[in-house]
Amino acid sequence: MSPKTIGLIAHTGKPGAAELITQLRNDFDHAGVHVLLEGATANLIGEQGRKTIAELIAKVDLLVVLGGDGTILHLVSGLQDVIKPVFGINIGSLGFLTCLSSSASREAVDAIVSGRFAFSDRILISVEVRSPKTPGSRMLALNDAVISRGEVSRLIRLRTRINGEPLTEFNADGLIIATPTGSTAYSLSAGGPILTPQSGVFVITPICPHVLTNRSVIVEDRSIIEVEPSEPNCPTYLTIDGRSPMLLNSESVVTIRRSEKILPLAVLPEVSFFNVVRQKLKWSGSTI
To answer: What is the pLDDT, as a whole number, of residue 286?
Structure first.
């Protein structure tokens, strides 16, 4: 793929973002690739920009995202009916989802202009909250849905069903339902397994479970997962991809299923998933 028009979206709070935006636009201009800037990205370098993410997506072949994994997750929250491929350049701290670091920005431009990159199709999850008291709401996530306790330091009970069949009632600090992409995020910190991007499964990981036999459960990604708080007087919150938490009432049911949408995430052909894992998790092998 050699895009003719790209959209540039930056985390405007990152140091060096303004300089990188200017450099990339100049490099793409010299290569004959048209660049459109998202509104806040344009404002950061002193230009008037009003394009929303949705408007940008409608006009470009590829989205170039400057930031870290959180910047790409924020982008996913603004996606609607149309999804365009994403090429990430890391100016964040971890960068599991990005192709190259900001210091290799010229290499990124060369790869994009020449089409020397491939796509890793990442599944998205649709998260729906239903309650007799409130209208249903549906959200899209790339990493995970987390149901957890609030500020009160006590365990919560979460009834969990898979395709309508009871799994168990977790008595824990919370529960993480993660995609393969999200398996290297919060779920991994809570003791969950690492899943390869095309593994075709979800992982359900309890957070600090009271019952020590409650461990991560892997289910196929065609499963419908339902989670229901079972204690009416214990505040319970839903967080999607690290966004602002949503308070769940005692009759809420959170349903997680695979979305029909796919996010094509750019990868360099010479860099494998396991290469990224070794690098990011600093797996250098045994010194014994």
So the answer is: 62
